[in-house]
Amino acid sequence: MTASRALRGDRDVSAASRERVIKAAEDIGYFGNHLAASLSSARSDLIGVIVPSLTNIVFPQVMSGVTDGLLGTGFQPAFGVTDYDQDREYELVGRMLSWRPAGMIITGLEQSEKTRRLLLEANIPIVQIMDTDGVAIDSVVGFSHQTAGSEMAEALVSAGRSRFGYIGCNLESDVRANKRKQGFADALSRHDYAITASLFCAGLSSVGDGRRLTQELLMQSPDLDCIYYSNDDVAFGGLCYCLEARVDVPARVALAGFNGLSLLQGFPGLIATSTTRRRDIGRASAEIIIESLQNPQQTKGRQLTMQPAVELGALQKTCSPSD
Amino acid sequence: MTASRALRGDRDVSAASRERVIKAAEDIGYFGNHLAASLSSARSDLIGVIVPSLTNIVFPQVMSGVTDGLLGTGFQPAFGVTDYDQDREYELVGRMLSWRPAGMIITGLEQSEKTRRLLLEANIPIVQIMDTDGVAIDSVVGFSHQTAGSEMAEALVSAGRSRFGYIGCNLESDVRANKRKQGFADALSRHDYAITASLFCAGLSSVGDGRRLTQELLMQSPDLDCIYYSNDDVAFGGLCYCLEARVDVPARVALAGFNGLSLLQGFPGLIATSTTRRRDIGRASAEIIIESLQNPQQTKGRQLTMQPAVELGALQKTCSPSD
DNA sequence: GTGAAAGCGCTAACAT
DNA sequence: ATGTTAGCGCTTTCAC
Question: Which of A155, B87, B168, B297 has the greatest count of CB atoms below 10 A from its CB?
Fold first, then answer.
């Protein structure tokens, strides 16, 4: 009937009817039923967004970016969390698709074959985010973690460092942290250097673990002049230990993390990092979905790289401690 | 037909048919349509979850808790973010309800009157979380921020502090931080003390702001022996400043935050805090929704308080700096 | 500009 | 244990 048109803001409704309908709707406290609408029109205004974890601030920021990018478009994000578990991811993707979302944003390129098939067959725009090292399903917004790792290594070598340690958390599940480590090690070996000592912890990264592992690593390898961490949280924990133990950072040992978290502003410049544009990646992925929806042909398989910038901070000004 | 029953795991289907159906479904890559299912059965397996922000780790942790609590129940969380904006909240609640969720979890007790009406009329279990200072719509899981503030004040007074400063971020929108401050000030005044110096910053709380504001506050009021912060992020920034400026914490000045973030493990015990059980609150709220769904009568209007524990850390052992 | 008819893909209730 | 019928609340298409 006319009511349906009026409420959806269809033109071809007289101003008089429109007003009457809207008035009536308010009076009875009516609000539509998206289920019926989407079922009938065979499309919904949901954009599925899948992230691996909510344990540090990185993915929440990506989600904020997506929300921003969707604001005012009439589309709505629907968030899901996999906890870095591929089976859970498959399950979640299936559930999301069964809501017939208009598009999907999913973290990483390493979905299981089953999941990839689901996504492909859904026949909606898919954007994989946060990584570009691999084979895409459709569009991609992110950067190469491998490159990020090697760029950090190059920068640290240029700053005169030569005895490298590594500390990582959650490497069993965090594919991207592994890629960074790989890129880091590869770049070092091109300079005939290597990671000579490393420590790992299972489970999620945390400041506390970084602190503990750094103490341990420096005990067993006191000659290290640089430690690369799987991310900023762990690196920051390392810095806390060093400050308390009066280990001079970065003069005696340089610490390098990853992400460029605002947390680092606690001690500006003391930790080298690669600043990732997390909100921008979220926003851009939302925009690509919207464009694809408006222009299905031209926007297939776009690739957008936002490589993080290496920031050395105070390290820039120091020389090798052996000088 | 039988297929529908088989796929939903209805009993009253012969093992033979069930297998044939499931086999066939896999062959053609069939997966159901939640839209149609929910429309038909007039209920969905979604639980709407509304949080104010994703800018620090607190609400992501609540969301993880909800996800945990829902795991294996067949219900699924659907997350929404309001950015501390009541109009956005109203909009979001409306949109969520139009998906006919089975229940709603929403942060805080300060919804607008319109939003409250929407929620009431939805006739589904509602759980408001994170706060108990106010009037509930249905069930509540959280704690009194007012009490949390006064308990911290009491603890600090007992620890011998007497000259109090306050630093807060985002107080324009963060109702709960305001309640803590109020409770803190009220408790102080019962001891004839008061907050004698404060600084605020607009916008979201961050470590960097805490650092900057603490420097400023200690410059203009060098005699303070205690600073209460709106939360741990800001407090931690303050600690970073003090460590760098060699201000003795907690001997000369005690710092107190709120939340018990794992970040504090960078310098264990140096910041007093109230440890909130964020995951537990998320999990419990999910459980209450599930119970209400199974047992509509008995579970109306439950109230669950999980008051945070004050942790003084190193401050416990110090005496007033004037001793 | 408005209305009537059909149907989206399921589930519920009732046969059989 | 399986099939049949009707209908959830919309949108679409086509008349008027």
Answer: B168
